[in-house]
Amino acid sequence: MTTGRRRDRWSLDGLRRRLGRGTSTQLVVLMAVVAALALTGSLYVTGAAVRTDQREQAALAALDDYGSMVQKLGIETGLGSATLTEGDAAFLAGWLATFQSGNARGARTLEETCRTGRGGAGVRYIRSPVGPPVGLAALATTQADRAPGLGEDVYLIGLDKGVLCPDRAVEVVAVRRPVGPLDIIVGRVVDRSGEAWGRAVIVVLGAGLALLAMGLGAAAFARQRLTRAVTEVSQALDRAGVGDFSLRAPETAVAPELTELTGHVNGTLDRLEELLSWLRDSADQLAHDFRTPLARATARLDRLKEAELSPEALRLAQEVEADLTQLTRAMNEAMALRDGEAWVFETVRLDQLATAAAELYDALAEDRGVTLRVVAEPVQLLGVRSLLLRAVTNLVDNAVKFSPKGGTVTLSVGIRDDRPFLSVADQGPGFAAEARSDPAVAVARAVAQGRESHGMGLAFVRTVLKRHGAGMTIGDAAPGAVVTAHFSR
Hints:
- By secondary structure, this protein is α+β, with helices and mostly antiparallel strands.
- The protein folds into four domains: 4-40 and 198-276, no CATH class; 78-193, no CATH class; 280-338; 345-486, Heat Shock Protein 90 (2-Layer Sandwich).
- It is 58% helix and 16% strand.
- The protein has 14 helices and 13 strands.
- The chain has helices at 4-7, 10-73, 86-100, 110-116, 138-141, 195-241, 259-306, 311-338, 350-360, 362-367, 385-401, 433-437, 439-448, 452-467, and strands spanning 122-127, 134-135, 144-146, 154-159, 170-179, 182-189, 346-349, 371-376, 380-383, 408-416, 419-425, 471-476, 481-486.
């Protein structure tokens, strides 16, 4: 249930919700997104750098293989296409097979490369004007991309699955240069698994996770600190809302970011405590000043009524007594609103209050020929029972007094638009349209027209409802007026 206290701290609750749910959460999400983007970018850049390094290493190995091959060919490089025979081509084929199976520096076997996915295996191809080509023909037939950044006459060749390895596709860095009448292609398989790449990924992921953990920890710490600070400020305001100004918000101990806010809050609480103290002292003085003359006037009126009075004088004395009673009642109600105990909230059954008020005025209504009717369903809310009961009895008192003989006063309690309500409808003179639209105008009109009871009652009811976070509307009962108190959940 919502009470008047919540209206005094709605903005602070909103700040606490934003700090506790919105701002910190958004900060964590933003940090996570930034960390993820930075991690992805780092992995991409690192991967590109590692891939380039792997290709460069394969290119250097291929150039080294090419130089070794040309050197070992020796005088055969001087053969021309006119003098090259089929026997020479057979010799070159045998020589290439021997060279291919040799242990080139840093080379892995083709079987190892295909099995593990690791690069380093050498591939060769020689084509002569006489006889069939020797080596991996796909090096010559597959489209190759020039890689000038890796060296002159260096190409990148992608071999599909099944061309070199049965179960995997590979990338080859190849040197393609003629030697005499021979077209020679010498290449190395690029390392796809990439131990360096794996190490780089682990390092980057570790750094990213560490940064993300640090960011989440910092955000959680900031959220906890700010939420705790706002909670303590809210607690100080809650205590002030029930008349206890002994608690103040911490100014620097919890969250230095809120030092200015807590300073303003504490300054406001100090000023409110000072003003309330002054108001209480003034109310006590006024009560003392009023009680003495009211008591004297009441005593003198009692002695006057004991004397022999004419009917007219007796009527005037009774009216004066009623006025004195109303003044005493108004003063007592004002003092009740001032009293700190009136701020203590508890669970109150609104339907039971309506029934109690009807029972209290049942005898008066019967004397005036007015029927009291209660239409209520069980409704409970947080409030001050004594104040709410006085407010309801004020509405019933006004309705009974201004209902004609034979009229009906109806008290209704229920839920409307998911909000508790209590209404009192009479069949009296009602209010003008302007007064119905603004309860403050209704109070002023009632007092100006000499309907002090109605005016004082509505003023008291408005004050009590405002303290409970509720509102009051005045409608047309056709005939009469219906005053409705709308409470918040």
